[in-house]
């Protein structure tokens, strides 16, 4: 899925992620990749909505908080998806 995303085949990447989500529904990196695909295909609002809907999931929140790199990645992409909003508060500590 990541390779297809890098090649800008976002639709194929999303198809592969849907199969992956059947086994690992709360994978923070897969959820982030899905949001990145939606950002490229649609806009930042769609990506943020996708990311936020999963961030409210307790399993994802626990997994992201237990992994600093994953948490930083999600926080960074939240800034990107929102067009730089709150960048000065979120990015400097990263």
Structure characteristics:
globular, 94 residues, mainly alpha, 0% strand
Could you please describe the fold and organization of this structure?
The protein has 7 helices and no strands. By secondary structure, it is an all-alpha fold. Helix 3 runs antiparallel to helix 4, helix 4 runs antiparallel to helix 6 and helix 5 crosses helix 6. It is globular. The N and C termini lie far apart (26 Å).
Query: What low-confidence regions span 5 or more consecutive residues with pLDDT below 50?
Result: none
Average per-residue pLDDT, rounded, comes to 87
Number of strands: 0
How far apart, in Å, are the first and last alpha carbons?
A: 26 Å
Tally the helices: 7
Silhouette? globular
What order do the helices and strands follow?
HHHHHHH
- Beta-sheet strand percentage? under 5%
Q: How much helix is in the residues?
A: over 70%
**Class based on secondary structure composition and strand pairing:** mainly alpha
Q: Sheet with the most strands?
A: none
Measured on Cα atoms, how large is the radius of gyration? 13 Å
